[in-house]
């Protein structure tokens, strides 16, 4: 069993008691709520006549169903309007703070938590959303939960869990120009498998992780679940504290210093023991794209798509089906795979640095005439900050649509969906069949700069081949 | 345990589930396949059963395609046999809710995604694991004997069918919860409200 890791320390601090089921009752420091997975939980509470135990530790936003084009109420989609109204009623009745779109703070739940400083190191954080692991980037213990567990947290402020093992993922070296945190996490998932993390929490560390800004660390932790790990985290350090200082929910002055002492105390000890350690050489990585229909089916941009028969027996059938769906051939590379849509958004990659990196590629270029380009900032604040820098103009001048904040085409619960068998270069997290709203749609996962490159060339392209990088090299 | 759609109240104790089976083959079957996102635009779980595996069961005109959930001989089945990493992807409880409301009371598989298994437990649905070889043999058996009963024994950690007894595994906490009927975690944890307050007060970040 692990010992002295952040996971062990945060777990111990939040342990209430052991339950008759053998599970641990853990106190939840922050419960984030959105409209899709919460209404049934509020309903269950009502049925039992229970109140929300810790409304002050609960925070709501709306993201999955919000339209990103015309956001005026009532929403044109009746089902979306009903879900929004239900959430408004539930948070009002319970006294839960709600970032509705009129506040200027609305956005994807995993973007708004960190940017308001709600997310802090050493907390336990839950949300009815599998990408809750995102918040682990701050050294919080954060995991996605189902609706019955949301009921538990609403009613008791706690969650019942079994302790898991800890795997340290050490990413050594420096990432090359054009290689991003997204490429790191796609590599992790490819190496360890989509179920390699089941039973584990991932601790990401090493030089490449230390060098990353908070947005990059969030991209990595975000996709832990795609590798089967319910939670992933990075130990807090000066980058973390600098990011937090001055944010809305972060205290100032002496109170900040006191909290910082706690944050430092929960970081994994130098001699911490792990259940497993995996090392990845970050300096060897190139931009990664997916060729299939699970996030584990990824390759470097210069690598050949594998032949199903060369894969382990249990992966061959799904690879065959995936290649048929994607219309790709073993032996080819993904470089040159034509796309119809370029989607820049999602809780994985729609923060300000993501948009900046993509804008840098887009600047002075035009979206290919056969491509529909969509930029969906992660939150209203990201959008405002991007506009203050003129990024919106860069995207719009190039021919991108500049939208309002939400989950959008990551999962196609609003109007933003693929049509028919469209192919999409996407900065999101899942390339499952049907994920982006059309069951025949095809998703290629990649980093924001790679999405930008695909948007302008009309095909999957090594962003390092574009002029910006030629200039840098020269 | 009743499998009728709309009557999804779980039993107090689940020691064994017996019923006919339905095999759904393939690794990494994700929750977007089990229930596509567009069917999540609901404020209750009622009626989700009809949307289970919708996009692989129906074509663009909503005509049924070849899928075990559409086949006559598997209607009324309550034991689902699946392969590896079943239920990966999103945390949507709508996925097990849809399966349960279609009629599934227990799932036997090679492995399950964690959040999915946790969601199943919250509904009183055992997620029992067995080796790849054993699961594939079970799937073949069900195909050939759609009317035969499959017994999922949570206590003995066995799956029994025909003359075969399969060694299965039930996660410890899951077993205890199902067998002792103590999986109403809201009630269990609600009883410790005072201790919760003490734990909360001991955390540096709750006082600022």
UniProtKB/TrEMBL annotation, chain A:
Residues involved in [4Fe-4S] cluster binding: 347, 407, 410
Domain Aconitase/3-isopropylmalate dehydratase large subunit alpha/beta/alpha: from-to ranges: 8-458
Cofactor note: Binds 1 [4Fe-4S] cluster per subunit.
The entry's keywords: 4Fe-4S, Amino-acid biosynthesis, Branched-chain amino acid biosynthesis, Iron, Iron-sulfur, Leucine biosynthesis, Lyase, Metal-binding
Superkingdom of this protein's organism: Archaea
InterPro entries in UniProt: 3-IsopropMal_deHydase_lsu (IPR004430), Acnase/IPM_dHydase_lsu_aba_1/3 (IPR015931), Acoase/IPM_deHydtase_lsu_aba (IPR001030), Aconitase_4Fe-4S_BS (IPR018136), Aconitase_4Fe-4S_dom (IPR036008), IPM_dehydratase_rel_enz (IPR050067), IPMI_cat (IPR033941)
Keyword presence, Metal-binding: yes
Molecular function terms, GO-annotated: 3-isopropylmalate dehydratase activity; 4 iron, 4 sulfur cluster binding; metal ion binding
GO biological process terms, semicolon-separated: L-leucine biosynthetic process
Reactions catalysed according to its record: (2R,3S)-3-isopropylmalate = (2S)-2-isopropylmalate
Gene3D superfamilies from the UniProt entry: Aconitase, domain 3
EC number of the protein: 4.2.1.33
Pathways involved: Amino-acid biosynthesis; L-leucine biosynthesis; L-leucine from 3-methyl-2-oxobutanoate: step 2/4
Cofactor(s) required for function per UniProt: [4Fe-4S] cluster
Assembly description: Heterodimer of LeuC and LeuD.
Function of the molecule: Catalyzes the isomerization between 2-isopropylmalate and 3-isopropylmalate, via the formation of 2-isopropylmaleate.
PANTHER family: 3-ISOPROPYLMALATE DEHYDRATASE, HOMOACONITASE, MITOCHONDRIAL-RELATED
Protein family per UniProt: Belongs to the aconitase/IPM isomerase family. LeuC type 1 subfamily.
The protein's name: 3-isopropylmalate dehydratase large subunit
Upper classification of the organism: Archaea, Methanobacteriati, Methanobacteriota, Stenosarchaea group, Halobacteria
UniProtKB/TrEMBL annotation, chain B:
EC number: 4.2.1.33
CDD domains from the UniProt entry: IPMI_Swivel
Pathway where it operates: Amino-acid biosynthesis; L-leucine biosynthesis; L-leucine from 3-methyl-2-oxobutanoate: step 2/4
UniProt keyword Lyase, yes or no: yes
Domain Aconitase A/isopropylmalate dehydratase small subunit swivel: 13-132
Keyword terms, alphabetized: Amino-acid biosynthesis, Branched-chain amino acid biosynthesis, Leucine biosynthesis, Lyase
Gene Ontology cellular component annotations, sorted alphabetically: 3-isopropylmalate dehydratase complex
Top EC class for this record: lyase
Gene3D superfamilies on file: Aconitase, domain 4 (3.20.19.10)
The keyword Lyase appears for this protein: yes
InterPro entries named in the record: 3-IsopropMal_deHydase_ssu, Aconitase/3IPM_dehydase_swvl, AconitaseA/IPMdHydase_ssu_swvl, IPMI_Swivel, LeuD
GO MF term list: 3-isopropylmalate dehydratase activity
Catalytic activity field: (2R,3S)-3-isopropylmalate = (2S)-2-isopropylmalate
Top-level taxon in the UniProt lineage: Archaea
Coiled coil: none
GO biological-process terms attached to the record: L-leucine biosynthetic process
Subunit structure: Heterodimer of LeuC and LeuD.
Family membership noted in the UniProt record: Belongs to the LeuD family. LeuD type 2 subfamily.
Function, in words: Catalyzes the isomerization between 2-isopropylmalate and 3-isopropylmalate, via the formation of 2-isopropylmaleate.
Protein name: 3-isopropylmalate dehydratase
Gene: leuD
